[in-house]
Amino acid sequence: MTEGTGISRARLVHGGAALVLSGSLASALAVPASAGTAPDGDLAALRLLIGAELLALDFQRQALATGKLGSEAAATVKRMRADERAHYAALANLLSQAGQTPATADDIDFAYPKPTFRTESSILARGEELEALQLGAYIGASANLQTPRLRIAIAQISANEAQHTAALAALSGRPLIGKPFGPALQPDAVSAALDAYES
Q1: Would you say residue 21 lies in a domain?
Q2: Residue 157 contacts residue 56 (beta carbons within 8 Å)
Q3: Which domain holds residue 150?
Q4: pLDDT tens profile 117-161
Q5: Cα–Cα distance, 162 to 149 (Å, whole number)
């Protein structure tokens, strides 16, 4: 066991995903940082990713509220929602530490195409689309971040978003493993995709 970390090598190798999934990411990133330590590009990336997390949280809230998800799908979406809350908290904390105010659910009104919440199938299809957007946004952000601490956080969240994508694929009866290289979305593409969901 590494002294002072409380994480054995076996737990890190065999259960490393637990750190991301347990919601402990926010606390792991709670070490204070002085304001202004991250360059403007990194802060812009954080703001964009926060927008993507807020979209996911809003979608998942509405999906659960429909009552149209079966027990397995509802349990999966609830777990994903807990993860997204942890992601949002960690990103908002990082932005706050840099002296910026993160957006909240009250700042953005989201809208969805009419068939989105019609059936479990349509909900899962839209969920997969949004997870692909999030994963692409995180992969794209990781290519441009200059602050090592932010790169680690984005990599950890990316791993969890990939798990979400696989979980939704399983619910839809599609292959759990996709392409060997996930797409990296550039900030302009992410921003345009988010804009399409704003009312």
Answers
A1: no
A2: no
A3: 39-195
A4: 999 999 999 999 999 999 999 999 998 899 988 999 999 999 999
A5: 20
CA distances from 44 to 41, 54, 101, 155, 160 (A): 5, 15, 12, 17, 22
Question: Taking a C-beta distance cutoff of 8 angstroms, is the pair 98, 145 a contact?
Answer: no
User: Worst-scoring range by mean pLDDT, 15-24, 60-69, 122-131, 173-182?
Assistant: 15-24
- State the total domains in the chain: 1
Segment 71-94 shows an average pLDDT of 97
Closest CA to 147 of 94, 99, 87, 96: 94
β-partners of residue 110 are 198
* Residue 129: burial class (beta carbons within 10 Å; 0-12, 13-18, 19+): middle
Rg (CA), the chain: 17
Q: Is residue 88 domain-resident?
A: yes
Q: Is residue 20 part of a domain?
A: no
| 198 bridge partner residues | 110
18 part of a folded domain? no
Is the CB of residue 81 less than 8 Å from the CB of residue 64?
yes
* Structure token pair of residue 101: 């105010």
Read off the CATH number of the domain in which 158 is found.
1.20.1260.10
User: Could you give the 3-state DSSP secondary structure of residue 37?
Assistant: coil
Burial 158-178 (b: 16+ CB within 10 A, else e): bbbbbbbbbbbbebeeeeeee
